[in-house]
Amino acid sequence: MVAAANMVEVAALVGDTARATMLAALMGGQALTASELASRARISRSTASGHLGKLVGAKLLHVTQKRRNRYYRIASPLVARMLEGIKAVAAIELPQRHQPRSITEDRLRFARTCYDHLAGYLGVAIADALIAKGHVVLTDDGGEVTASGMDFLAAFGAMPAPKSGSRRIFCRPCLDWSERRYHIAGHVGAEIHRCCLERGWLRRDRDSRIVRITPAGQIGLRKTFGIDLGGSRNPAQSPVHGVMTVCLWKSPDQ
Description:
Layout: H1 7-15, H2 17-26, E1 32-33, H3 34-41, H4 45-57, E2 61-66, E3 69-74, H5 77-93, H6 103-110, E4 112-114, E5 117-119, H7 120-132, E6 136-139, E7 142-145, H8 147-156, E8 172-175, E9 182-185, H9 186-198, E10 202-204, E11 211-213, H10 215-225, E12 227-228, E13 247-248
Antiparallel strand pairs: 1-3, 2-3, 4-5, 6-7, 8-9, 10-11, 12-13
């Protein structure tokens, strides 16, 4: 685990631009080869292999051999949490940029994966909706799913608990680096993400952490969570990529 390397060494490893780029690519939860990671970081495969060796040695990454390829992935949810925390702290400490953002950056901020759960505007909106309905309680110290929340998750198709023997945290807050507020992580966050994918509400970009919301997803998110994204507010469907808002929608009878 990360404790195998002291935090000064970890900070130095993560601070390198190429290594940071490769770690960011793996924060989508998928496993990638050295060639794929080299391409993302725009460095040679041999250079990437050297960086990856150091990250594996620090136990930030795990490598699996499959036929001729070696696949790298984030070593554990705890490592993913640490890396996302570093990014969140950096976002708070660094001054806001005033230059226009690209459509890719806006899409990343709007909806993305954070290891195995949803982040960005969408992830925070889902957390806000569940809190407003009394299904989830998030504090600085942790997360809790209420009795009504357990019923909601069961109806949604989520597994009620992690697999037997799993040490996975059930529900916890994760500070969103772009929103600077909490989205839901842990088993509950992963299950919400999985269910949204299986329902065809979301589609993941192949080469990035970006998550796109399908037309069925816009309907499903509104009916299930009360989230009205609105076509004009979704950067995946709109040429306008300035400030975006996500509104909690209520039916007329509420």
